[in-house]
Specification:
alpha+beta, binds (3R)-3-hydroxy-3-methyl-5-(phosphonooxy)pentanoic acid, six-stranded mixed beta sheet, four-stranded antiparallel beta sheet
C-alpha cells in the first residue's frame, strides 16, 4: 500500500473558459486566466493497493456513476504511467459547497491528480500534473498553480503568470445555495457549441478579452482587469443562455446589482459568475470587508466568504 495526501484550492476565472476544441484530450477552445483562492480547500487522500474497483468517497459519500467514472479515468492514466494496476481508495473532502459552480471540480481534480501521482511514486513536475488534471477538468489544470494562472489554447498544462503575493485583489464569494448544480459543465459546453447562435461570436470575442485582461493584470491595472472580467462572464453566460443554460437565480441577479451599487459608491469591485448561481466579486483588498458585509445582506445570499489569492496544489504528510 502506498498513500499520499494533497490539498488544492479552487480558482475563479477572470477570463472564462467555455467550450472545448474538437477531438480528443479535453482541450479548451478558448484561453482562460484565473486566480487561485486561499481559504477554500479540497483535501484528497489516495491509497493504492489490492485489486478491484476503485472506491471514491467525496465528503463521506461513496461516488457512483459519472463522478466515479471521471475519477477512475484519471486513476487509469496514473496506473498506465506507472505500470501498476492497483485499486485506489480515495477520500476527498471540500470545505465549501460541492458541484454547485464553486469550482469544486477544479480543486477536486487538481488534488486528485497530485495525490494519485505521488501515491503511485511518480515524481512529476507541476506541468505534468497540470496536464493530467486538465484531461479531467480543464479548470483543474489551473489549480495546480497559485496566484494568477493562464491556460492557453492548445497547451497541455496551465502556467503561473503572477505569484499570489503580486495580485492586489480579494474575491468575495456570495454563496447562494448548498445544492448541486443541475447541468455538468462538460455537457452544457457541448450543447452550447451545438445549439447556441452566439457560440461563434464567443469563440471570436473570448481570446480578445483574454488578451486585454492578461495585459491589464500584468500591468497591475486591476480596475481594467475587473471591468473586462465582467465582460468575459457576461459574454460566456449570454452564449450559454442561447443554448438554454441559465445559471443565474434571483439571488445572483440581486448580488450583481449590489456589486454595481457598491461600485457606484466608490468601491473597486467587479462581479463574475461561473456555471452555477453563486456570484463572486473581485474587489480591492481595502474594500473587501465592507463589500462582504453588504453582499451578505442581499436576499438569497446565504453567506459570503472573503478569499485572498492562494497557492497552488501541495502534498501533505499522509
Ligand atoms: O473545467 P470545468 O468543467 O470545471 O469548466 C469550468 C468552466 C467555468 O468555471 C464556467 C469557467 C472557468 O474558466 O473556470
Amino acid at each position: 500500500m502506498t498513500a499520499a495526501v494533497a490539498i488544492a484550492h479552487p480558482n475563479i476565472a477572470l477570463s472564462k473558459y467555455w467550450g472545448k476544441r474538437a477531438g480528443e484530450g479535453n482541450f479548451p477552445a478558448v484561453p482562460s486566466l484565473s486566480l487561485t483562492l486561499a481559504g477554500l480547500s479540497t483535501k484528497t487522500r489516495v491509497e493504492l493497493g489490492g485489486r478491484g474497483r476503485d472506491e471514491v468517497r467525496i465528503n463521506g459519500a461513496l461516488a457512483e456513476g459519472e463522478s466515479l467514472a471521471r475519477a477512475t479515468a484519471l486513476l487509469d492514466r496514473v496506473r498506465a504511467a506507472c505500470g501498476n494496476d492497483a485499486r485506489a481508495f480515495v477520500e476527498s473532502t471540500n470545505d465549501f459547497p460541492t458541484a454547485s459552480g464553486l469550482a469544486s471540480s477544479a480543486s477536486g481534480f487538481a488534488a486528485l491528480a497530485l495525490a494519485a501521482t505521488r501515491a503511485a511514486g511518480l515524481d512529476w513536475d507541476s506541468e505534468r500534473v497540470s496536464d493530467l488534471a486538465r484531461q479531467s477538468s480543464a479548470s483543474a489544470a489551473r489549480s495546480i498553480f497559485g496566484g494568477l494562472v493562464e491556460l492557453a489554447v492548445g497547451e497541455r498544462s496551465a502556467r503561473a503568470l503572477l505569484p499570489a503575493s503580486a495580485v492586489d485583489l480579494r474575491v468575495v464569494v456570495c454563496v447562494t445555495t448548498e445544492e448541486r448544480k443541475a447541468h455538468g459543465s462538460t455537457d452544457a459546453m457541448r450543447k452550447t457549441a451545438e445549439s447556441s447562435p452566439y457560440y461563434r461570436a464567443w469563440l471570436e470575442r473570448a481570446p480578445v478579452l483574454h488578451g486585454a485582461i492578461r495585459e491589464a493584470a500584468l500591468a497591475g491595472d486591476w480596475i481594467r482587469a475587473g471591468a473586462l472580467a465582467e465582460e468575459s462572464a457576461l459574454a460566456m453566460h449570454g452564449c450559454a443562455l442561447g443554448a438554454g443554460f441559465s445559471y443565474f437565480r434571483d439571488a445572483s441577479v440581486r448580488a450583481i446589482d449590489a456589486v454595481r451599487t457598491l461600485r457606484e459608491g466608490g468601491a473597486r469591485i467587479f462581479f463574475t459568475v461561473d456555471a452555477g448561481p453563486h456570484v463572486k466579486a473581485f474587489v480591492s483588498p481595502e474594500d473587501a470587508a465592507r463589500a462582504a458585509e453588504a453582499l451578505a445582506l442581499v436576499p438569497g445570499v446565504l453567506r459570503t466568504i472573503v478569499c485572498a489569492p492562494g497557492e497552488g496544489a501541495r502534498v501533505e504528510a499522509p
